[in-house]
Amino acid sequence: MTGTGCSRRLGAGLRTSLALVILGLVGVAPGPMAAQGTLPEGARVPFQGRWTTGCFKLGMYGRNGVIVRLHVSALGGLDAEAQMFASPGCDRPTMLARYVGQITRADDEGLVDLLVGRVSLSVSDAETLRLFNAEPELLGCGFGAEAPWQLHELRDVSGRVCGGQAFPVAGSMLEDRFWIDEGGLRFGILPLALQGGQRPEVPGQVRFYKTGLASAGD
């Protein structure tokens, strides 16, 4: 396959893969948020703790793999990390998406509202890096020759368009729904999108499994 054909194929996959990024910049403090961007006094998130998905398929024809990890504090801080892979078996990392946000509502009816903090992206594969820099407007989030991507360099992509996916700006809201049972945690929209319209009525296909408690002091 020619370089152009390969680029187009990867670009098409990235348009879908990048949509999965959930907000949450692990280990980095969120930017300023509006005063109303907190849970009501005394409220606690019913799904606090550490969660992970298994390796699941993403992209055109399921050619890519993704693993998503969440940390949700009792007070609603949400850190998330989505590691994307070149194959559906999750054996060669290509990009890492990180996000931080604040849950402002999580009630007994399963309604959850998320205030977007920051979405960041890094490239961990040499071929993906080449394509990002070769086609900065299509794949590289608009970072041109004056600011080329570097391997493993985390960049803020909030409000930018990357691979055809428009990321939300800080301060925007996502209205979702959650379901918890003996099999784990599911959302209606997350982690396959960060921007939604009508609040979903049925759970999505991606399931999170609990792996630990929330960090002390959160």
Provide structural commentary.
The protein is mostly beta strands. The protein has one domain (3-211). It is 11% helix and 35% strand. It is built from 2 helices and 12 strands, in the order αββββββαββββββ. The chain has helices at 3-17, 126-134; strands at 49-52, 56-58, 64-72, 77-85, 93-106, 111-123, 155-156, 161-162, 165-166, 173-181, 184-187, 207-212. An 8-stranded antiparallel barrel has the order 1-3-4-5-6-10-11-12. Strands 8-9 form a two-stranded antiparallel ribbon. A hairpin with a 5-residue loop joins strand 2 (56-58) and strand 3 (64-72). The termini are far apart. The model is unreliable at 15-35 (pLDDT under 50).
Helical percent range?
Answer: 10-25%
Count the E strands: 12
Note the beta-strand portion.
Answer: 35-45%
Write down the overall geometry: globular
What is the H-and-E element order? HEEEEEEHEEEEEE
Task: Supply the number of structural domains.
Answer: 1
Quote the distance from N terminus to C terminus.
Answer: 50 Å
**Could you tell me the radius of gyration in angstroms?**
17 Å
Overall pLDDT metric? 82
**Strand line-up of the largest beta sheet:** 1-3-4-5-6-10-11-12
The biggest sheet, with number of strands, parallel, antiparallel or mixed sense and barrel status, is: 8 strands, antiparallel, barrel
Note the total helix count.
2
Which regions are unreliable across 5 or more consecutive residues at pLDDT < 50? 15-35
Structural class: mainly beta
